Amino acid sequence: SERAVGPALEDLFNRHASARITVACFSSHLHRIQQIATIARDVGRRPVLLGRSLQRNVRLAVELGLLDERLVAHQVDPRDVAGMDPASVCVIATGSQGERMAALHTLAFDQERWFAVGADDVVVFSSDVIPGNESAVNLLVNQFTRLGATVVRSPRELVHTSGHAKREELALLLELARPGIFVPVHGEHRHLAAHADLAQRTGVVREAVVVARDGAELVVGE
């Protein structure tokens, strides 16, 4: 459950109270961002937002009332971090999947861009590795370790939990919705096939279940 991540992050902040903490997560995961910002505020740290998509999403979330403006009201400019006590800031960054143009990659390989990472840093990957991104993520982990930082990852510590529904939850949704036509999306073909099989097990007739390839055109009704 997402509820379990908060206490784990809080414990992490308490154990590394004197370190500068950088947490990498998906910029679209507003609940996780809010959890991190809340913990940072509670322990006296000011937020630093690294990444254009993160800054944009946080701004929109505040405007829409989905994120408490007070949590990000005292943001620190990334260029000012170098001169601050490491224990006084919490960096939230995009790029947990090792994307070369993302903030976390820049932080790892361009030490003059914002601030230099070293022994006073803890870098937390608050995400799982999407299949296919293993090499890019390992490159970042090795680089941060080479710089002297402590790297924290899931599942060694519960700093992330999947946002994807489990099989039982998908079955419950199918039983409640009782769709006339079911088209599974997201994932590789084996995931789509398993989801289609689950739909049939919950009562959707076989002819109404369509497993489509990417790019296929599906016409529903005329």
Summarize the entry for a quick read.
With 222 residues, the protein is of the alpha/beta class. It contains seven helices and five strands, in the order αβαβαβαβαβαα.
> How many E-type strands?
5
Estimated radius of gyration: 21 Å
Number of helices: 7
What amount of the residues lies in strands? 5-15%
Biggest beta sheet summary: 5 strands, parallel
CA-to-CA gap between the ends? 42 Å
Q: What letter string, H or E per element, gives the SSE order?
A: HEHEHEHEHEHH
By helix and strand content, what is the structural category? alpha/beta
Overall pLDDT metric: 90
Identify low-pLDDT runs: none
CA-based shape: elongated
Widest beta sheet: strand line-up: 2-3-1-4-5
The level of helicity is 25-40%
Describe the structure.
The protein is of the alpha/beta class. The protein has helices at residues 5-15, 30-42, 52-63, 103-109, 134-146, 167-177, 189-201; strands at residues 20-24, 46-50, 89-93, 121-125, 150-153. The longest helix is centred in the N-terminal third of the chain and has 13 residues, at 30-42. It has a five-stranded parallel sheet with strand order 2-3-1-4-5, with helices on both faces. Helix 3 (52-63) links the parallel strand 2 (46-50) and strand 3. The termini are far apart. The model has no long low-confidence stretch (mean pLDDT 90).
